[in-house]
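Quick note —
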Amino acid sequence: MEALRQARRERRALVGFSIYNLEQGLGVIRAAEAVGAPVLLQAGSSAFRYAGREPLAGLALGLAATAAVPAGVHLDHATDLGEIEACLRLGYTSVMFDGSARSLERNIEATREVVRRAHAAGAWVEAELAGIAGDEDESSGRQATATTDPGAAARFVAETGVDALAVAIGNVHGIGDEPVRLDLDLLARIGRAVEIPLVLHGASGLPPAEVSAAIALGVAKLNVNTELRHALREAVLARAADPPAGDGVAALLDPVIGATRSAAEAKIRAFSSPSASTTGSSS
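Predicted structure written out below.
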């Protein structure tokens, strides 16, 4: 949690990268180590459908424990309290409870309980009010439909004790067919209404200048998924088109680690490194 608070104080962002396998995890950790910046491995609910909860969680926790930089493991977009409890028992350092499909009152009630349990386990909690359009696991081209109301956000934060708030300000999961424009005026109003760090989902593909502006207005955590998936896909296709001699696993999969590292390092250097507050508009 201190890394998140420090990021907000220094007007930079902690980057959370969604991972689905060992190669992506290694690439992210190596990128963070190269920059010397903290990072979050997001082994979340949707990725569990691919890799299984315990296997993927164990992999992420092992990578974080042996990293040469501070690395947390984050449960993204959980809607089930049982899943949250299971990940807290495994050792997750933070969880996101997504109660956006509930009424404000029911979301507050459920989030308050998640906060109670997570804090007892030493973890911090991210939560969400308005749903964020798009698919976490595959670019869908959907456009934003809901936005975060600053007044509701102030009430939500005050009544739940949540540590970070995911905002809906025009952002979408994935990279859509049309350019995404963030409502920075709305973000400024939200930032004045609440004092906790804000989280921007769907940071893949956004213009660096817009991301930097969002960070200046209180966003202290960025979620990146699509760009890592694109890096993995391109590396796999390139290797298939030019296969190595023999069947050595490293020769086949090292390109995925390298491509992931390059994509992750670009984001970390731009927005999460100690100098990001002055160079965040670069890519």
